[in-house]
Amino acid sequence: MNVPAIEINALTKDYGSTQARAVDGVSLRVPAGSVFGFLGPNGAGKTTTIKILAGLLSATSGQVRLNGHDVARRRSRAMEQIGAVLEGSRNVYWTLSAWQNLLYFGRLKGMRKAAAQARAEELLTGLELWERRDEKVGDYSRGMQQKVAIAAALIADPPILLLDEPTIGLDVEATRTVKEWVRALSTERGKTVLLTTHQMNVVEEVCDRVAVIRRGQVITDQPTRQLLARFRRRDQYVIEIDGRADGLELPVGSEVVCTDDTTTITARLADPQELYGLVDRLRDRGAILQSLAQVQPDLEDVFLDLIKDKADV
Questions:
Q1: What is this structure's pTM?
Q2: Contact partners, residue 253, CB within 8 Å, separation at least 6
Q3: Which helix (H) or strand (E) holds 283?
Q4: Which of the given ranges, 10-19, 39-48, 86-95, 283-292, has the highest pLDDT on average?
Q5: How far is the C-alpha of 133 from the C-alpha of 148, rounded, in Å?
Q6: 96-133: buried (b, 16+ CB within 10 Å) or exposed (e) per residue?
Q7: What does DSSP say about strands 262-268 and 236-242: parallel, antiparallel, or unpaired?
């Protein structure tokens, strides 16, 4: 039986004299070599969970294992399994250069100097920082600082990477670089990546599986495609035609957007026969059908639906 890269069992974390519960019975299993999205609104408990995984907080109860090593009982062995970039934390030293930071963290992880230098060059080149490696990190832009933090987490080539909002502050090009790195780490090097972010497009593009936490509890844990399919609207279609559709009989609640050249109709059709009838009416009017597609939800739609307070609906 394969050992999960990350195994969390009935994890809880209480804070303060009131014993406010930030994490409430979280259980998760992350297979080795996968990219796992761990999502939730602010204050849901995801960052607390990440910090427990990283050994920065102690759990009130429950168990966490990293590649089979219990974080509470075999902390040093467990910590050897991970590299982490934590949102809101200064993960690198701003008074040092990018080069100095990576060599320092490499040596801290027990790497030989030559190995640390070779790895640092590889990382800084891949993140397009090599030409500015000798500048102080404090003089970098926010996006460049985040790149150095990611490189520092990867310096010792850990089998598990914890990324808490890794693309925050990055421009479009840098975000694409990080996404490509995350996928390559998983598919080409067999790394396990646990990712938290508010950028749902990033999760949808790179994550094999997604868990959503709300008020300290996991409310869903499914493969990304399966989660999207669960929320697919099978009765909603988008039809695009050449020209206008003035006077056309449309189902109640349909939305019509017209431009000079095309008309886009979004219609909810409970019965497939209604779709055929609408297409026939369009054809009878001489309309040229450009496209017809079933509405597909994106992960942002699914996430917002999952976290909304059902009592308010």
A1: 0.78
A2: 267, 268
A3: helix 272-284
A4: 39-48
A5: 10
A6: bbbbbbbbbbbeebebeeeebeebbebbbebbebeeeb
A7: antiparallel
